[in-house]
Design brief:
By secondary structure, this protein is mainly alpha-helical. It is 62% helix and 0% strand. It has a domain of 56 residues. The longest helix is centred in the middle third of the chain and has 34 residues. It is flat and about 75 Å long.
Length: 87
């Protein structure tokens, strides 16, 4: 981050109310925690690869997955239908 932008943000902090500062603090802590979790996960994955337990870490691709709507079933519950068919 350029120093000028950091200085601008720091100057704007002085005009915030205490409740706004608290909200900002919570958001910053969440960002820091997310970075910490990411760093721990990356270290864990590197340890797995380094130990030879896995050859590569694959990250799932969630793009292209669509939400499928639930199907409404009339009559008896599906679980009861399955149990009845197994008898």
């Amino acid at each position: 981050m350029p120093q000028a932008l950091l200085n601008q943000i720091l100057n704007q902090l002085q005009s915030l109310e205490p409740s706004e500062l608290q909200q900002l603090s919570q958001v910053i802590q969440r960002y820091l925690k997310d970075d910490e979790v990411f760093a721990k996960r990356a270290a864990f994955h590197q340890a797995l690869v380094g130990s030879g337990l896995v050859r590569q870490i694959k990250n799932p691709n969630f793009e292209g997955r669509t939400h499928q709507p639930l199907i409404l079933v009339q009559g008896e519950p599906i679980s009861q239908t399955i149990l009845g068919e197994r008898r």
